[in-house]
Amino acid sequence: MQLINYFTAAAALAVAALATPLPNHDTDNSTLVGPETGHLVVVGGALQSEAIWQRIIALAGGPSAPIVVVPTAGGEPSYDSSFPSAATLRSLGAQNVTVLHTYDPGVADTDAFVAPLLRARGVFFAGGRQWRLVDAYAGTKAEAAFRGVLGRGGVVAGSSAGASILGSFLARGDTASNTVLVGDHTVGFGYLRNTAVDQHVLARNRHFDMFEITRAYPGLLGLAVDEDTALVVRGDEAEVVGSTYALVYDGGFWSREGSWERELPGPGERFYFLREGDRYDLGKRRVIEPSGMGGGEEE
Ligand SMILES: *[C@@H]1O[C@H](CO)[C@@H](O)[C@H](O)[C@H]1NC(C)=O
Ligand SMILES: *[C@@H]1O[C@H](CO)[C@@H](O)[C@H](O)[C@H]1NC(C)=O
């Protein structure tokens, strides 16, 4: 009994501690959720589809656009220019791909380190553990330069850990385990304001995990992207690209078959799926209705 009380009290304290406001990265006073200029490509891990890679290259400005690949989330002792994501981009026609890496924020804060980023039109954050990106780059010239790529109209893309880092709330940021949703690192790079991004969602049966985050931070928009699928974001519009689904946790529910009476959980714990071609308004938090929709399509 005493043990139970102890843990209940500890849990209550933990929740109280978590309810403190998160720092935000707004420097431009924008009211948009996504970037005002440039694009994000938010990939749910296991990126295979040539269509998604080609979208990243196209949004950077085409095959000659300089693209910087950041492997740091991976945690390997070192990296070279043959890193797989860089090799894939080159094999698909990208002619100017640089691999940029350090674990040392002192290095990430130097002009020499950020030089390739100042000319880049694209950045790709590869997978691993998202906290490593925070420890290496948060608050450095490199972090400012990543954001600068968007400011110049380029693309910032990421897969798996590289997707979660794009949100303002860092989902699964715990250094001990990727099963801890609200961990010891909670602040992402924030290109998506007031938003948490999860990945590998259907492939790993993670579809209920987002509620751990939205319970602690009820105002957040939750986006969870499945493997080999992406959300392409500009301003307040997110479009699904790829073979499976993106899940939206906005307290609402949507179905392409229209709405009718059905039993749903409370607004705090609803989500719904968007598939290839579906578009979502991040600011209004509702689906942009496909044209010509209406009436049930029989399966
Ligand atoms: C954002 O708003 C603050 C406070 O109103 C103002 O001081 C600052 O100059 C604004 N920044 C930009 C980039 O407009
Ligand atoms: C890659 O892009 C940078 C920045 O525009 C440029 O300085 C460099 O010459 C390019 N390299 C190649 C091989 O095209």
Automatic annotation (TrEMBL):
<protein>
    <recommendedName>
        <fullName>Cyanophycinase</fullName>
    </recommendedName>
</protein>
<dbReference type="InterPro" id="IPR005320">
    <property type="entry name" value="Peptidase_S51"/>
</dbReference>
<keyword id="KW-0732">Signal</keyword>
<keyword id="KW-0378">Hydrolase</keyword>
<comment type="similarity">
    <text>Belongs to the peptidase S51 family.</text>
</comment>
<dbReference type="InterPro" id="IPR029062">
    <property type="entry name" value="Class_I_gatase-like"/>
</dbReference>
<dbReference type="GO" id="GO:0006508">
    <property type="term" value="P:proteolysis"/>
</dbReference>
<dbReference type="Pfam" id="PF03575">
    <property type="entry name" value="Peptidase_S51"/>
</dbReference>
<feature type="signal peptide">
    <location>
        <begin position="1"/>
        <end position="19"/>
    </location>
</feature>
<dbReference type="GO" id="GO:0008236">
    <property type="term" value="F:serine-type peptidase activity"/>
</dbReference>
<keyword id="KW-0645">Protease</keyword>
<keyword id="KW-0720">Serine protease</keyword>
